[in-house]
Known about the structure:
Chains A, B: Mg(2+) binds at residue 12. The structure is a homodimer of 91-residue chains. With 91 residues, the first copy, chain A, is an alpha+beta fold.
Amino acid sequence: xxxxxxxxxxxxxxxxxxxxxxxxxxxxxxxxxxxxxxxxxxxxxxxxxxxxxxxxxxxxxxxxxxxxxxxxxxxxxxxxxxxxxxxxxxx
Amino acid sequence: xxxxxxxxxxxxxxxxxxxxxxxxxxxxxxxxxxxxxxxxxxxxxxxxxxxxxxxxxxxxxxxxxxxxxxxxxxxxxxxxxxxxxxxxxxx
Lengths: 91, 91
């Protein structure tokens, strides 16, 4: 059985790097909202995402937080206002 | 024993409402990064936060996602680059 984890990534990066971070993360995870991505990944995918993000960001100026959970069931999601990217449409 | 939940709030709101959302959430939770707040709250605090956010945002244009977890232990946090607001300094 492949072990997976559920990721929630938020980032606050320089405007000159935002597009690169966003287009890269779109290849790995689901865009949820401005600067927020989610998705289920394998351990090796998780490490690859970390390595690739480290290459894109400027460690002195940018901030990326990767929250990881044993599964999506660990979280409840309550949306106020617009649901910019309904996850159930994608999954 | 008071039941608490751990919240992670991300928001994507119109520029004319960002300051109001941010200054309100600063009264309830810890600012973690641009448009990201965290904190442990009681069930009644959780409902108050939802009610107050509903009053501030424009439901047609803005998006707020409230992730809730049974406790902070449900999540692992991995920061790449700058830790804009070291949570351990605040807690």
